[in-house]
Amino acid sequence: MERRSFLAGAGGALAALPFATGAAAAASGPTGGVGLLRSYVANRDQFPQAQAPEPNEILQLERRPERAYDPASIAVLRGDGSQLGFLPSASAGLLAALLDQGFAAYATTLPGTGGSEIALQVYLDKDLSQVHWMASS
């Protein structure tokens, strides 16, 4: 596959994506994903019943375009489906565009983060079978 076709198929978003730097970018995720960015769980106060995840726990990322406050919203959920919060809008914009094109992403909690902030490493899944490819002109 030509590089141009791949980037066009991703809606051009991959070309502008702020990929993680250093060892995090080179590391693959626990299920073979590619390290994309570091972020955190925002809006934790809206989900006080959700128990904090364990270090290195794999979390689901789910698009929530119907959310009026931020149409690029991405919910952060534990394996049991309980919602922890959302990715902050600064992290969600381009990732939302990729998810809308069929890419899959997940996150893991980073160890050693104390307090109420839950730090995350976000990974882009390597399984491209669900990606909506566009033909380049």
UniProtKB/TrEMBL annotation:
It comes from the Bacteria. One of its GO terms (molecular function) is hydrolase activity, acting on acid anhydrides, in phosphorus-containing anhydrides. InterPro entries: HIRAN, TAT_signal. Gene3D superfamilies: 3.30.70.2330. Residues 34-126 form the HIRAN domain. The keyword Hydrolase applies. Residues 1-25 form the signal peptide. Keywords: Hydrolase, Metal-binding, Signal. The keyword Nucleotide-binding does not apply. This is HIRAN domain-containing protein.
